[in-house]
C-alpha cells in the first residue's frame, strides 16, 4: 500500500509538471500498470530510469525512494493467487500477466509451492511456443502467459483463467477469455480477476462488471460499445488516474465515466433491439411473399 501510494503521488506530480500541450502519458501509465502488477515489474523500469538520465521522468529523490519501497518479497496479490491455485487440486489454469518480471515472480512462487508451471511469452519462437502449449496440455498444471498467449491459441482443455493483471484495453481481456471460452469447450469456464483493493485496477474492474457488464456480454459486443465513447477507454482511464488530485476526486471522475459507459451500453442495446425488430419484420414479409 505504501509503495502504491508513493508511486501514484510521484506520477501525478510528474504529469502536472509536463507542459499541457506536450504531456506524455505512456511512460507514466507503464509505471502505474507495473505497480498494480508486481513491485518487481515497476522496479525494472525505475532502475532503467535511474541508470539513464535522459529517461528520467521522475526526480532522483523520487526514484531512490520508490526503489527502496519496491523490495517486497511476496505481495498480497501474489499470495492470494497462489492460495487459489493450491485450492484447484491439479485442475489446469492459465494465469495472464502483462509483464515479464511478474511472470518470473509467479514462476518462482509456483516452483516454491511445488506447482508445475510452464511459461509462455512473445520472446519464444514458434517451435518453443508450441512446445510450451504441449507441455501445459500434457503435464503442467499452470500456464503463466504474457499477452502473447491471448492471441490465436485454443485452450479448451482448460477451464480456469486467472487475470493476474487487468489489461487497460478491455478488448484484450475479451481475447484472453476467448482462448478458453470458445467452441469445443465442454465445461463451464471460471474467470478470476485479481486486483488490489483501492488501486486503479479495482476501479477498472468495477467499471467492467457494474457499468459495462462485460462478463455477461457476447464476444464482439464490447467492441461496438467502446466505439460509442467520446475518447478511447485507455486514455480516459489514464487521465483520470493521473489528473485526479486525490482519491475522492478520482472516485467522482470514475463514476462520471461509468455513467458514460452505461449510456454507451444503453445506446447499443437500443440499436440492437431495433435491428432485431426490423429483421423480424423482414422475415415475416418474406414468409408472406413465399
Protein described:
- The protein has 12 helices and 5 strands.
- The chain has 290 residues and is an alpha/beta fold.
- 60% of the residues lie in helices and 7% in strands.
- It has a 5-stranded parallel beta sheet with strand order 2-3-1-4-5, sandwiched between helices.
Layout of helices and strands:
Elements: H1 2-17, H2 25-37, H3 39-51, H4 60-69, H5 76-87, E1 93-96, H6 100-113, E2 117-120, H7 126-138, E3 142-145, E4 160-163, H8 170-180, E5 190-193, H9 200-212, H10 221-226, H11 233-243, H12 247-289
Parallel strand pairs: 1-3, 1-4, 2-3, 4-5
Task: Explain briefly what this protein structure is.
The protein has about 290 residues and is an alpha/beta fold. It has twelve helices and five strands.
Keywords:
alpha/beta, 12 helices
Say how many strands there are.
5
- Gyration radius (Cα, Å) is 22 Å
Mean pLDDT: 88
Outline the low-pLDDT stretches: none
- In spatial order, strands of the major sheet run 2-3-1-4-5
Distance between the termini: 69 Å
Number of helical segments with 4 or more residues: 12
Q: What percent strand?
A: 5-15%
The major pleated sheet works out as: 5 strands, parallel
Question: Which outline best applies?
Answer: globular
- Structural class label: alpha/beta
Topology as a string of helices (H) and strands (E)? HHHHHEHEHEEHEHHHH
Q: In which range does the helix fraction lie?
A: 55-70%
Amino acid at each position: 500500500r505504501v509503495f502504491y501510494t508513493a508511486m501514484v503521488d510521484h506520477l501525478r506530480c510528474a504529469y502536472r509538471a509536463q507542459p499541457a500541450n506536450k504531456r506524455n502519458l505512456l511512460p507514466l501509465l507503464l509505471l502505474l500498470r507495473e505497480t498494480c502488477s508486481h513491485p518487481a515489474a515497476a522496479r525494472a523500469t525505475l532502475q532503467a530510469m535511474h541508470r539513464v538520465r535522459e529517461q528520467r521522468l521522475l526526480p532522483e529523490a523520487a526514484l531512490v525512494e520508490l526503489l527502496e519501497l519496491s523490495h517486497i518479497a511476496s505481495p498480497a496479490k501474489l499470495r492470494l493467487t497462489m492460495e487459489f491455485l493450491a485450492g484447484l487440486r491439479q485442475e489446469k489454469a492459465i494465469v495472464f500477466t502483462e509483464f515479464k518480471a511478474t511472470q518470473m515472480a509467479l514462476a518462482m512462487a509456483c516452483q516454491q509451492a511445488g506447482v508445475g508451471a510452464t511459461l509462455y511469452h512473445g520472446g519464444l519462437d514458434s517451435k518453443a511456443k508450441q512446445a510450451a502449449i504441449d507441455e501445459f496440455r500434457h503435464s503442467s498444471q499452470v500456464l503463466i502467459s504474457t499477452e502473447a498467449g491471448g492471441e490465436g491459441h485454443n485452450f479448451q482443455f482448460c477451464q480456469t483463467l486467472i487475470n493476474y493483471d487487468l489489461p487497460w484495453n478491455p478488448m484484450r481481456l475479451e481475447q484472453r477469455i476467448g482462448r478458453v471460452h470458445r467452441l469445443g469447450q465442454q465445461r463451464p469456464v471460471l474467470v478470476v480477476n485479481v486486483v488490489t483493493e483501492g488501486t486503479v485496477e479495482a476501479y477498472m474492474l468495477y467499471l467492467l462488471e457494474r457499468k459495462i457488464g462485460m462478463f455477461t456480454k457476447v464476444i464482439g459486443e464490447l467492441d461496438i460499445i467502446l466505439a460509442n465513447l467520446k475518447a478511447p477507454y485507455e486514455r480516459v482511464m489514464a487521465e483520470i488516474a493521473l489528473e485526479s488530485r486525490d482519491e475522492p476526486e478520482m472516485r467522482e471522475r470514475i463514476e462520471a465515466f461509468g455513467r458514460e459507459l452505461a449510456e454507451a451500453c444503453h445506446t447499443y442495446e437500443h440499436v440492437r433491439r431495433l435491428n432485431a425488430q426490423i429483421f423480424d419484420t423482414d422475415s415475416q414479409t418474406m414468409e408472406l411473399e413465399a
